[in-house]
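Pinned message: reference record for F-box domain
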Amino acid sequence: MKGEDPLVIRFMMLPDDLILNCLARVSRLYYPILSLVSKRFRILIASTELYHIRVLLGCIESGLYVCLRSSTHGANPLRWFTLCHRPGRAEKVLVPILSPNSPTDFRTKVAAVGPYIYAFGGLINYNASSSVMVMDCRSNTWSEAPSMGMARMAPSACVLDEKIYVVGGCAKLNSTNWIEVFDTNTQTWEFLQIPSEKICLGSIYKSVGYEGTIHVRSEELGVTCKLYKGRWREADLMMNKAWGLPSTYCVIANVFYRCGGRMIYWYDSKERIWKTLKGLEGLSSFYRNGDVKLAEYGEKMAVLWEEFVHVENYRENRIWCAEIALERHINWGIRGTVEWFGKVFTSSEPYRLVHAFASTL
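Predicted structure (tokens):
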């Protein structure tokens, strides 16, 4: 004990409930660092009690989680990270999550509900899988969840009202099995058996929970449908046309955003037109030579992008992140303000962006 700060010693003598009450008031961005203080801190930070206290105190935050794919790690190429503050600095950095049993296939589709991130399907031993894995973001540990009714190699997934809609991802689909719905509260599955026409005959889909319903786009047919009053109806032509372009997308505060061609757009559902997100003119020059991911991040937008830089005799891989506040104006739509951006990951190994999601903690 010699040389230790007396204040630290006295703090560690407090009972668990008081320490939890203090930790609940600290931003979760510092939790990866605080968990290194002691085994006791690590256990308390991973406890469900801390999450419940944060809820009662109204201290809920969004935590950003990122999945990267490595081409040098063989059977387990996926690496999972969470964004946190760098010790002693203002910068943020991606910290690796060292948890066994994490998903290994990049085709696995991911969706987040509350403090949980679910991963659906993918390939296991070269066969499509019906397995579902779930990560409890409070402890950053993976475990098994109830399996799907169908094996799906590369499905799409979206969230609406704490239910996850898993779409496509396998051959021989019809109107009785092309969509499965997972109720995260009851932990049960059911097929969404709603009569549909050609849209259910594909295998590759995009899907999103938007304007109180789900929108599904068939990549083979080039058609977007939305669930309306128990039936499938074709969505707006302009929404479908732009959504079909190579892009990343997300929904924030019931506004549909997509990134394509180095620009970020939002969909004006009243005028039925895609509009450029203003205020980001300087940012677009940064994400010019790699993949980009968008994610809702506490009603703000997180933008992550790749950068590949040649350093001496090797290529350095970098991941950048920007946090964008969004503000709607009556006269000229939605404007974004870059509150922060910086380099959050650097490696001499080849990594690519796979997923970016926010959980509620």
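Pinned by admin. Summary line: The longest strand covers residues 314-329.
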